[in-house]
Specification:
The chain is built from 2 helices and 6 strands. It is α+β, with helices and mostly antiparallel strands. Helix 1 packs parallel to helix 2. The chain is globular. This is 2-iminobutanoate/2-iminopropanoate deaminase. InterPro entries: RutC-like_sf, YjgF/YER057c/UK114, YoaB-like. Pfam families: Ribonuc_L-PSP.
Length: 119
């Protein structure tokens, strides 16, 4: 089977697909400065939608998600964006943890594994 890579750079790609699975790199807001957790989460979820579409998938096909928060006290703020976005008929398995992210301006990072296919 062929491995497909999307938005490839010198260090990594933003998504990789093999067979029926799509793996997204950790997604952070493209413009995090001055934006809180809710806005950053909304931006990340838009990126996830775009990447899944490129790889032939959709949020209804997400199998597993790991959400990293720079400060776990912002859990409710992140969830406000998540709850407005997630496919309630097909919610993924999910873990949310507090972690030190790559740069202090990043408040949330999301990793996704999804099955390929349309909703």
């Amino acid at each position: 089977m062929t491995i497909e890579r999307y938005e490839t750079g010198p260090r990594m790609c933003q998504a990789a697909a093999h067979g029926s699975l799509v793996f997204l790199a950790g997604q952070v807001a493209a413009d995090p400065v001055g934006n809180g957790v809710t806005v950053q989460t909304q931006a990340v979820l838009e990126q996830i939608d775009r990447l899944l579409a490129q790889a032939g998938s959709h949020k209804s096909r997400i199998l597993s998600t790991t959400i990293y928060l720079a400060d776990i006290s912002t859990f409710a703020e992140m969830n406000s964006a998540w709850d407005a976005w997630v496919d309630r008929e097909n919610p993924p398995a999910r873990a949310t943890v507090e972690a030190k992210l790559a740069a202090p301006e990043y408040l949330v990072e999301v990793v996704v594994v999804a099955a390929r296919g349309e909703p």
